[in-house]
Amino acid sequence: MCQDEEAAGQQDSDQGSHIAPDTDIDSNDSAYGDDAITETTSISSWIRDYRIENGRTYHSFKDGKYWGSNDEEANEHLDIGHNLYMKTLNGRLFLAPIHPTPSQILDLGTGTGAWAIDMADMHPSALVIGTDLSPIQPTWVPPNVRFEIDDMEAEWTFAENQFDFIHIRGLHGSITDWPVLYAQCMRCLKPGGYIEQAEYSAQFTSDDDSLPRDGGIAAWNKVGPECHRVLNRELQVLESMGQHMIDAGFEEVVQHPFKWPVGPWPRDPTLKDLGHWARAHVETGLENWTLRLLTSVLGWTADEVSILCANVRAEIRSSRVHAVHRMNIAYGRKPAPLARHDSH
């Protein structure tokens, strides 16, 4: 059975409930928005020969498979996201009750490798492998970290029962067949090992109906699902990943719901700080999330995408708009074999 729980820590009671806005913020204060942060392959030169579209760079290995950019702005966005997840979990890298001394850990879609590097520092006796389509990871890393350029949707070359822990984060809209991916995770996890996935919603919501009826956010909430219907990819996987795990055979599946206030509008100081990071995450991600998708899938011009992003940015910088991004974390365990009892 899949359990809905709220994760331990300061955010738990706040994240699952209505977020109260700070009524002392001046809605006409122009300074409110001023602090926003305006197959396995060896790494070779052709992989680094990125495709350039509309001034942004994209991975060349399996060109077009992933919609996000891999340039400096996109990497900054990924690192902000890593800090946002860490703040949400009060400094924790994961929630699953994994073995205290894991030997091998896999980070799928590792991005800049921030999570893998932190995990390697936390578990110096473990080998941490991070895979991605882009070679954007740093060169100087802990000795127990290894990065591979790989397509996680291709057939895995990892051994059966190899990993103690498999970590997935921020892959919404990127995978064409989630059941196949979970099946590969099941095969390569050790019995008793854990899979954990963290995903946030691609849609803005609010607890107090403060989103503008028309404008940037309203348009944004329509075009994302439209793109992914054309691509036949699941955008809101945060709502289905727990069931996907159950269907793949994982047991003791637990889900933890969170809310990210987009902007420093909450009254609670901890949530206000989280809101600064969440807004920075959105602002550095807006164009990255939309430019390639809207131009290549829906036929928009780059200028039209820029206008949409500018409108969304203006709305989330208003203290009257109490936008929220939902985020869920789910984890489950690969069943351990039943103990055998010899009969006499």
TrEMBL record:
Say which domain of life the source belongs to: Eukaryota
Q: What InterPro entries would the database entry show? A: SAM-dependent_MTases_sf
Where are the stretches annotated Disordered? 1-34
Q: Which GO terms describe its molecular function?
A: methyltransferase activity
What name does this protein carry?
Answer: S-adenosyl-L-methionine-dependent methyltransferase
Organism this protein belongs to: Capronia epimyces CBS 606.96
